Amino acid sequence: MIKTINYISFGKYETGGYKHELFFAEQLCKYLNKENSDIQLNIIRKNKFYTNPFQYIKLFLLGLKANGNYNIVVARVALFALLRNAFTQNKVYIVLHNFDKSDGKSFWLKWYYNYLFWVLKNTTNKKVSIVAVAPFWVNYFKNKINNNIPVHLFPNFFDGEFYEKFFQNYSFVEQKNSQFERSREQSYSVSTTLDMTSSKKKQIHLGQWSFKNHPDVFEVAEQLTSKGYYCYFSTNFKDFAKKTNDYEVVYFEQFDNYLTQMALSEFTLALTGINEGWNRVVHESILVGTPVIAYAKAGLLDLVNESKSISVNNINEVLQVIENKNVHVNPSLLAHYDIKNVYDFLNKMLI
């Protein structure tokens, strides 16, 4: 008899959170099939945003599709997924990347999250568990629900062998130069192509273009630009590409080109304004040999500490680190997040 895994989510863009959830669903499917089970993965995703109370109702009801033997759901469909499986033997994994009361949630969403955590704190269904992306959030959610149901760690995983070729491998950079130029032309980037040569340029990667960024990052960009630096944000979404006097938002159609330019940057900044789950861009920057300067808190603090990156508190400290330049990275510190170790985490989770 075929068993099913239903992964239920929503969103217009393929964000880091989406990549983490989908990878978890795919790896869980492979793991269970490896154990001689006949498992089928169903991806149920609404490619849209929900922005008002009437739309929220439609979103919440999406949780009723959690009728698989294993159900992986995001927070905003979790309540109805729990209701759908209140009297079944089906498993429900609620993926919670982070939680920040100050990140602009509407009244209705604040009410929803309060009620969700109340339900999790009082549920008696032992088939329900939370999946978190960082040690900080494992502890946070355990406290939030009084340790009533299991909270598992399933971090972001990366293929270390793939990233190795970008780590200060400038012969590879030169080889990719022409591809990089073509990609930027195709992406309708508004600036001229960077001169890709065999040494790191005077450029700073400001991190991913996102609402999560602290306003300080724009002041940093202004000051660095006045000193002759090229400052850029990266994005996977063509609609976000733009250029200002102080920075550029660069759309990278090819993933290799994004890693190549980041590897040639002096630093990557992660000046987050919210309590993040796990910053994929920071992790990738470390893997390609570019040091990270961060406003480290929540899950990002775990990543900064484990990789021995630079934690700062204000603009002056950011600029001081960039001026000193005496910072190195060691990707091997994050080796336990290599894709080869996925089953170790799944095994602990399922046992």
Could you give a quick summary of the protein structure above?
With 351 residues, this protein is an alpha/beta fold.
Kindly state the percentage of residues in helix. Answer: 40-55%
The assigned CATH architecture of the largest domain is: 3-Layer(aba) Sandwich
**How would you sum up the global shape?**
globular
Show unreliable segments.
170-198
Terminus-to-terminus distance: 23 Å
Radius of gyration (CA) equals: 21 Å
Text of the CATH class of the largest domain: Alpha Beta
What is the residue-mean pLDDT, rounded to a whole number?
90
Secondary-structure class: alpha/beta
**Biggest sheet layout:** 7 strands, mixed
Can you write the helix and strand succession as a string? EHEHEHEHEHEHHEHEEEHEHEHEHH
Q: Give the DSSP E fraction (strand runs of 2 or more residues).
A: 15-25%
| Adjacency order of strands in the biggest sheet | 9-10-8-7-11-12-13
Number-wise, the strands total 13
CATH third-tier fold name of the largest domain: Rossmann fold
Name some characteristics of this structure.
13 helices, 17% strand, six-stranded parallel β-sheet, single chain, seven-stranded mixed β-sheet, globular, Rossmann fold, alpha/beta, 351 residues, 2 domains
